[in-house]
Specification:
335 residues, alpha+beta, BirA Bifunctional Protein, domain 2, seven-stranded mixed beta sheet, rod-shaped, binds 3,4-dihydroxyphenylalanine
Length: 335
Amino acid sequence: MDEAITTLRDEALVALDACGDIDGLEAFRIKYLGRNGAVSGLMRSLPGLAPEARPAFGRDANKLKQEIEAAFTARRENLAVNAAADRGGVDITIPGRCLPGGHSHPVSQVSLEICDTFAAMGFDIAEGPDVETDFYNFEALNIPSHHPARDMHDTFYVSDSTLLRTHTSPMQIRAMEARRPPLRMIAPGKVYRCDSDVTHTPMFHQVEGFLVDEDVSFADLKGVLSLFIARVFSVDTAIRFRPSYFPFTEPSAEVDIACVICGGKGCRVCKHTGWIEILGAGMIDPEVFRSVGYDPEEVSGFAFGIGAERIAMLKYGIDDIRLFYENDHRFLSQF
Ligand code: DAH
């Protein structure tokens, strides 16, 4: 082999070993393998050689070119692996993987939607304690201790006079005590009853609403609730007010909407009546006003209580309330 070739080979391999990074490697490529580099220089020297020496020189020069190219590729890969190791074995050129994002619970979403709807009508939002006194949960709402309506609530007692609130209606009392009319309030929150089956969980969510002013009528209540139902369901949802009884309202009503599953024709969900109850409401009882020191001759008002899970079940066609609280990601991620 020609001496010029062996000299260049030794020099190039030593230089390649000394390349410590990508920039060094690029300089090496230009110097030895580039168009005007040392290996091409060997080829260019070919015409100056004796004719009989040219074939062997050309072959050896070509072999050298391949050898240096192979060594160059190996060195480049080796440098890339080392660079990844320096970064803690992380190859930063691989596209990132996104972490799945969470979102608010379907019952929270529905509670928020209910509150937004009333906030748009000028209602203030208030929150109160989950652990209530007997006075706020029952007495002041015209449910004295001997009252049979206490049986409608399967209460969790904390002590003789404290309990987990069975409804959000105590917020009517707290708000009326703290403020003077006119007032429009909406109070979302957790409520608790000793009850559990496909339509009941021991903890669930209600949204209480009430409005107190002079000359408030049942027509005002109907107007506000009709607007609410049109916003949360749809404008053409049929509504029915059915006479009912609550100790803290007189007159009282339960409000039904045309069954969202069958459209009113009758099905298992609406027990073949075509109607589904969605909330309780009524004109605030004079006894309730008296318990907060308001004069029922001067003010009047209406109140309503909405079950958030119930609205969510109807909106999304869910037939078992317990699904909301099993924390199964496959269920929750659908909302
Ligand atoms: N507090 C009642 C319950 O939990 C719901 C209710 C009915 C609230 C009528 C009201 C109302 O404000 O006027 O069953």
